[in-house]
Amino acid sequence: MFCLLYISLANLAPSPSNHQAAPLPKDAEPVDLKIILRVFKSIIPPALLIFAVLGSIFMGIATPTEASGVGALGASLLAIIRGRLSFSDLKIVIRKTTHTTAYIFALFVGATMFALILRGLGGDELIEGALKALPFGTSGVVIVVLFVAFLLGFFLDWIEITLIILPFLAPVMMDLGVDMVWFIVMFAVVLQTSFITPPVGFALFYMKGVAPQGITIINIYKGIIPFVVLQVIAVTIVFNFPEIVTWLPKVAYGP
Question: Domain boundaries in the chain?
Fold first, then answer.
């Protein structure tokens, strides 16, 4: 919406810029009230869907897991209203959902077995003792954990890391008095950064699989550098100013 308003205002005033650097498509429609209303009409359904999912969480109606069901129901209703949901499409969706659910539950079972064996052998106590013995203080321990998570993201998927590593780290972080919302947000961003960081970067290979011909993996490596730098800066800012991520949860749910 703001982009359309900007284009409209830009068209009213002369600009010394080179318009040929980013020319308009030949079939571009002129920006008028009709197209603005059409944009509003198009964004209202997805906006309501987003509100239904996030609103149900913030208002305490549903847990995040239950809110995903609300989102699935809302998306299905939108598809039915627009006439884009057929029995064959529903069959494909159910099959793919079943496969994904089975895959996730298999990981749950494997991770639970691994965690039980590791706890039975005293692995959790070893990890806790090693982290608390670090001579860096609470902030130093958090930095070490984030760095290790960054390295693990090169070789493991986020699901394995979340199910295996976090259950051992959470008690240690809570004993050190670390705000878990603050820690989890940084942990998630660090994992995302590791997935797009060369030389491994799982997401980069996914991107290469859908990239047009002529785009090499080296091109992708070079193109991803600014995003890695921005995410590292974001983690650094959140690390030094925790209120950026803790203020809203405290306002919504209390201390």
Answer: 29-85, 122-253
